[in-house]
Amino acid sequence: MAVDVRTTSVPASATHRSRRPRLPSAERLRSFAVFGAPGLLVYACFVLAPIAISFGYSLTNHNPFNPPTKFVGLRNYQMLFTDSEFLTSLRVTTILTVIVVIVPNVAGLGIAVLLDRKGWLYNALRTVFFTPMVLSSVVVSIVWTRMLDDEGLVNQALRALGVDRPPGWLSDPRLALYSIAIILSWQMLGFCVVVYLAGLQGVPNELAEAASIDGAGPVRRFRSITWPLLAPSLTINTVVLLITAFKIFDHIQVITHGGPGTGTTATIAYDVLQTGLVANRQGYASAMAIVMLVIIAVAAGVTLRILNRREVNL
């Protein structure tokens, strides 16, 4: 018996089943108060409030050991851009950030491509590469300080290979900054490897197989298919590395204390702590911290905007 589809009635409720009923405004406010307000309150207390307090201090000459505190307006900010010590720390931080953004990204991508295989050995290697990431920065700094000491393991190995005068990795002002950059890059390498591995596992096999049938070699397949699809992974790694490198303090404090010499490896974050806690110029240190925050926010925002244009929606 044939059924005429045109005469079959469809319940009106079925056509609207997929629509979610809108909550009354009172219920929405109650839901926000229960689920959203606590998170916003924590964010406001531990992020927004300290920034506001720091900005307030930056407009004063606050020094707990030299009262009274006076309002100085933007004088601290004007002094920053004529302060040779701050400009030197800005240059040091920029060089360090550029190295730390490039080296782990390039090395992490290469290692991720090599480890993108199945097997217990590759799983073990992934764990090995990620281990430095979970270690404390202080522990990493102490270990590398011992290894890169003038009589450390690295120089002993170089002497065994016939090098009469191994370089002073941490005592030579020309090498100390680059040594710290390599240490931080080594610690962040595992993070980049894991992110790139996640991106590689999300690349559809059908695309690579189709390109292979069309005669594309491994290099062409990587350049035309894999690399464009890794754009989100590149964005994550670049932004995280940029922020991590620009606010580095603990490695500098443990390894070189801003030396060797004067300001050779002193970053902005290191100068902020030295100015605020050692020199007790907390108003001036707050101005330095606000400038560092603005630089990080602008750099991260511009980087996100540029890299997001490359991303491919699967």
Automatic annotation (TrEMBL):
Q: Where is this region: Disordered?
A: 1-22
For biological process, the GO terms are: transmembrane transport
List the keywords (alphabetical). Cell membrane, Membrane, Transmembrane, Transmembrane helix, Transport
Compositionally biased spans, kind Polar residues:
1-12
Positions of transmembrane segments: 32-57, 95-115, 127-145, 175-198, 229-249, 284-307
Q: What Gene3D superfamilies does this protein's entry cite?
A: MetI-like
Membrane topology (UniProt): Multi-pass membrane protein
Q: Where in the cell is it found?
A: Cell membrane
- For the keyword Cytoplasm, the answer is no
The record's GO CC annotations read: plasma membrane
Record carries keyword Methyltransferase? no
Residues covered by the ABC transmembrane type-1 domain = 90-303
What family does the database annotate?
A: Belongs to the binding-protein-dependent transport system permease family.
Q: What is this protein called?
A: Sugar ABC transporter permease
Organism (species): Planotetraspora silvatica
